């Protein structure tokens, strides 16, 4: 366990974060008294993988295409724009 004061922690935060992420226990002290402990966060969740994206797409299918024509869409857009004025 390494103990550092607040000023030293502020000046070398990136080094302390790297040490904590490697498993070292960092204690930050204020006026000689321990105040907080800096430890690594264990994150077991997979993120941003192709399999997670595929799973999301299978559980959230794309909406069914509506059968509106171009003219109907243009009319709807014009009506909505008119409502703003």
Written account of the structure:
There is one protein chain. The protein is of the alpha+beta class. It contains 4 helices and 3 strands; from the N terminus they run βααββαα. The chain has a domain at 2-38: YefM-like fold (3-Layer(aba) Sandwich), CATH 3.40.1620. It has helices spanning 6-11, 13-21, 50-59, 70-84; strands spanning 2-5, 26-30, 33-38. It has a 3-stranded mixed beta sheet. A hairpin with a 2-residue loop joins β2 and β3 (33-38). The chain starts with a strand and ends with a helix. The mean pLDDT is 88.
Residue share in β-strands: 15-25%
Shape: elongated
Task: Give the biggest beta sheet.
Answer: 3 strands, mixed
- Report how far apart the termini are: 66 Å
- Topology as a string of helices (H) and strands (E): EHHEEHH
At the fold tier of CATH, the topology name of the domain at 2-38 is: YefM-like fold
Number of helices: 4
Q: In the CATH hierarchy, what is the class of the domain at 2-38?
A: Alpha Beta
The CATH architecture designation of the domain at 2-38 is 3-Layer(aba) Sandwich
Query: In which range does the helix fraction lie?
Result: 40-55%
- Spans where pLDDT lies below 50 across 5 or more residues: none
- Strand tally is 3
Mean pLDDT figure: 88
What integer value in Å does the Rg equal? Answer: 27 Å
- The CATH H-level homologous superfamily of the domain at 2-38: YefM-like domain
Strand order of the largest sheet: 1-2-3
Q: What structural class do helix, strand and pairing data support?
A: alpha+beta
């Amino acid at each position: 366990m390494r103990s550092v004061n607040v000023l030293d922690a502020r000046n070398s935060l990136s080094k302390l974060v790297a040490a904590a992420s490697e498993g070292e226990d960092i204690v930050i002290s204020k006026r000689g008294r321990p105040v907080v402990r800096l430890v690594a966060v264990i994150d077991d969740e997979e993120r941003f993988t192709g399999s997670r994206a595929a799973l999301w797409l299978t559980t959230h299918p794309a909406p069914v295409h509506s059968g509106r024509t171009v003219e109907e869409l243009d009319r709807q857009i014009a009506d909505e724009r008119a409502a703003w004025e």
